[in-house]
Fold each of these.
Amino acid sequence: MDHRHGITFLGAHNLRLVNNTVLDNRPDDGPKPPWIRIDDHKAKTPSARSLVRNNLSTSIQVGAETTEDHNLLIDDLAALFEDVANHDLHLRPTATDAIDVGSSEAAPAFDLDRIPRPQGAATDLGAYEWHDGSASPVDGGPTGPALDGGAPTDAGRADAAPPTDGGSASMDGGLDGGGGGESSEGGCSATRVGGGGSMGQLALAGLLVVLLFSRFSAVGRRRRR
């Protein structure tokens, strides 16, 4: 399915979108690149006190009440990912714009393969943490962010988390428009500080959203080579 709504929440409060990868692996076939978007609801209810961090996406649009930092806009799929055509979206070792440049604050303790984060000097961007093949998946509790807002811990490990469903997450309030909000221009985006209040009532962490030409692709977990 080609659609611009990669991850969309309108009128959301206390939302965390951390370490997600959102892209269309057939960008020439779709109407627009998929986005991460947090904006006002169609009933004019504003979004507030949300966080967008450590994401890889083809577009990011957020309002002034959302904190946005350590995100990277995807310009060249082949430069970042191992094998886009075969849905392998692990980072290439040469993807230096996305490796060791993230923030550990509110980041999930593990990546989509259940590899502990970080594997280098800092957390990587996107759903997968790059490593040289020496790291192994861990057993334990479900992957998720450190909900106290601090650095992730290794507590509460459980059985392997399920792989991504490859679909899109959307709560668009009936709005199907393009426009609205602010769009980051590329590189690691500047922080936009919003209103006060605690965050963490709703979180999407380590989600892999791949929009295909005619269907959603289920991307299985793979061990790094």
Amino acid sequence: MRLSPPWFCVLSLTLLAGCKTHLDPVSYSADYQVRSGTDGRVELTPIECLKPSASDEFALAEDYRPTLAPGCANALNLLQMVEQRQDVVQGRATGPTMAAPVGRAAQVYIDGYDREELRRRQAEQQSSVNAREGQ
């Protein structure tokens, strides 16, 4: 039995329609556990890092090293980035924003200036102000 080109296309599209086109989102806990060390220090440990390593069926060679559990590296990086480690457990109220930098950034975005052009314009404005003050 030989398939004609239109039937072949329909059959191919039908087979491809059954394929999964995306991965499910990875869910992991963003919680931290407070642990006390023997020296009395209190440490925050991501709960995801307490789980066993992720399995890797492809890298079973002699140089194989187990990887971190999903979400562990993200949580550890977040701990390194925060100003106060306690913020990952209980956040703080944010203060007022500085309006000038936000306004400048919005103006640059709206006008479409790049940084060099913006610096050049600011230098021109400053030189014209200096020239007026000198007169």
Amino acid sequence: MGTSFSGAHAYVVAAMDRRVKTVLAQAPFVSGRAFYANLARVDNQIVGPDVFTADRRGLGTW
């Protein structure tokens, strides 16, 4: 059982140790390379404070 990095470790241990019968991982961090490549994408970048202003104005409108 684990969250994030610990979740990934739980998967690895389960794959290597036959005594492990069940794995529970909450938001496992399983691919650092893919995760950081996704963070570096331009469409995932916050460009400026206008994004926060638009979000703040949108609050309470629903």
Amino acid sequence: VGIEGGCARQARLTFAMARHAVVDLTQVFNTPPSAEPVDRLPAAALARLKAALAVVELPGVAAGVVDGKLAEVRRSYEPYVAALSRFLLLPLPEWDYETGHRDNWQSTGWGRRTSLPPADHF
């Protein structure tokens, strides 16, 4: 959404594959797509997301191109993800990033971390 160039094709293929997997899983579990999925990206969260993207100067973000395209992309998969979430009893995460929260790969099941700090992959 809003990014063109070398990575755009890969992003489209990755999204298509992930969406196809989600649709297939809803068929396997016989869970039809949700008619009224919960909006996990309210206007305030969308504004924060666009502000964060504008900082890195992604083309199309400041011009408002993202809103329509993002809504279109989300409509193509969110009903299926919502259905799987209810069926598998796995709540969907919010779109907002929690600061101070460590990713699961940055900790262990025993509560100890290695002496070396994890590399920042992002």
